[in-house]
Amino acid sequence: MRRKSLKYALFMQGGVLLLLFLLQFFLPAYHHSSFSKIMILASYAIGYNFLLGYTGLMSLGHAMFFASGMYSAGLSIFYFGFTPLEGMIFGTLFTLTVSLIFGLFALRTKAVSFLIVTLMFGQTFYLAILYYNEFTYGQDGFSLTDYLGTLSILGKEYLYSDPAIRYNFALILLASYLLITTLIVLSPVGRILIAIRENEPRTQLLGYNVFSYKLFALTFSGTLAGISGAMHALLYSYIGTTFAEIHHSISPLLWTLLGGAGTIIGPLLGTGIMFYLIDFISGITSNYLLVVGVVLVLTIIWFPLGIMGTIRQKWLKWLP
Amino acid sequence: MVFLALLDGTVTAFVLALIALGLSLVFGVMRIVNVAHGEFFMLGAVLSWFAYHWTGDALWGFILALLVAPVIVGVIAVLSERYILRKVHYNPESTIVATIGILYVIQQLTLMLFGPEARPVEAPIYFRVVFPWFGYSGYKLLVAAMSGLCLCGVWILMKRSKLGLYMRATQQDHEIATTFGVPTKKIYASVFALGGGLAALAGVLVVPIRQADHLMGLEPLLLSFIVVIIGGLGSLRGTIIAAFLIGISDGIISVFYEPTLAKMLATLFVVMILIIKPGGLFGESPQ
């Protein structure tokens, strides 16, 4: 079953990625840039889903990890003159450390307390960015345009904000996230994480060290979010506090739930749908958050499994 | 200076206790976290502005708001309990998602009806209490007194009335309570309405001190979370003690440092508490 599942899953994801790769040659400029943004945000949601969907831990502070990757990459390029690659590596390691330390504290609490603690840490991180505004440029944020330089591929020089570079970097990020999470989810470690989600005391009884598995899931999920943040910083050359705000923690929750928590492809679908829905609503009213609220409520009442979760339940049992 | 901070902190603590008490009651009895709690507070403040605007008189507006705002918010709370929370069977994580949704809906509808700007409401009474070396706003003392009265009221309600008995029974074990004939569904609805009403009341009381705007719900929400965690989820005594701890220390720290730093320190404080006692200071059972 697992082997078959893996085969089918890789096949399907390969198909989706191939489609996304080919689409870039046909999409009009506007949708081309929307798709790049969706792919970056979807990889953030995939990281989030690893924690929510496969370990059963709901976090309301994931913007902290996204922002930590974004700021540590951005600030190191800005102040220390790191190259973009060095900035990415630094951002990754920094977020890894942040999520590890955070996990050591936060995972002492369970269920509802865990949620509240993640929410508060997220908010504190946001306040800290505002508080040290001399260093982080607070609310205004800062631009990396003059610090990134160019990228040379096959002898040609490209800017990081070049649409084609943006699209393909986002696609590579998305592809590697899909592959890595699928492999982990279908590996023995992934099975144990799912066991923790389903019944934590029983998993503990079976002799597994639940705490360290949860710590792994949190650190991994946080690091993925951080890498997405760092990538966002490079491709959009802008770093600002909106990415640390509480809304940015709730967004991946919404995308994941809508697409289907605990399905690999779900977050991508959820992100895409919400992105275009908000895009459409923004043309009518500036209060798009109202729609976010309504979708959240309706999803949780009528679609608790999300789109892909419902599809899996009804038709495609093998979907990871 | 320290005395003034202490006084300001005490007033904050009373209001905070009122808000956090609602959150704690809802958690204790229903075992759910209401993320929209701060919006109930905000609605209280905004409704108070409407009452003030409509009557055109500070005192009558205040009295009207005091009577009407908790009722309106209570009705909204009952409706959202009946048509949303009951539908997700009070599953802890689903209710959190649902209440985040409610938060956005309330906040954005308020933004559409009320506008984005902050609007002041005049205090119903104006006098200064003159201490030997400085004057102090009499209204703030009134706020503290009225909050204290409400706290006592809730305490008596919980300990002495039949409704309170039912609530405590539901809190201890809602299945056994049901078999003994406690109408738990109605109790859930009343607790959610009571929690919302308390937050709205706090909003009405606070609005003459600070202005009303559609985003004012987040800060008290986070502060009450801190209070409820430190006090121990579901413990009323713990909630009130923690509210005073946080309110007064917040007041004092805010005088000497920036308010942002005070919030950051409060969060770190929570972390330390959680390391020492994961269930909170007065937690009934570690969650």
How would you sum up this structure, described in words?
The complex is a heterodimer of chains A (320) and B (287). Chain A is mainly α. Helix content of chain A is 76%, strand content 4%. Chain A is globular and about 55 Å long. Chain A has one domain (2-314): ABC transporter involved in vitamin B12 uptake, BtuC, CATH 1.10.3470. Chain B is mainly α. Chain B contains 11 helices and 2 strands. Chain A binds chain B through residues 58, 60, 105, 108-113, 115-117, 119-121, 123-124, 127-128, 130-131, 246, 250, 253, 257, 287, 289-290, 292-297, 299-301, 304, and chain B through 27, 33, 84, 87-88, 92-94, 96-98, 100-105, 107-109, 111-112, 218, 222, 225-226, 228-229, 233, 258, 260-261, 263-264, 267-268, 270-271, 274-275, 278, 287.
Low-confidence stretches of chain A: none
Tell me the radius of gyration of chain B: 19 Å
- In percent terms, what proportion of residues of chain A is strand? under 5%
The tally of strands of chain B reads 2
What is the first-to-last residue Cα distance of chain B?
40 Å
Give the distance, in angstroms, between the N- and C-terminal Cα atoms of chain A. Answer: 11 Å
Query: Which spans of chain B have pLDDT < 50 for at least 5 consecutive residues?
Result: none
Q: How would you classify the helix and strand content of chain A by structural class?
A: mainly alpha
Oligomer: heterodimer
Instruction: Quickly give the structural class of chain B.
Output: mainly alpha
Shape of chain A: globular
How much helicity do the residues of chain B have? over 70%
Average pLDDT confidence of chain A is: 88
Q: List how many beta strands of chain A DSSP finds.
A: 4
Biggest interface and which pair forms it? A-B, 38 and 42 residues
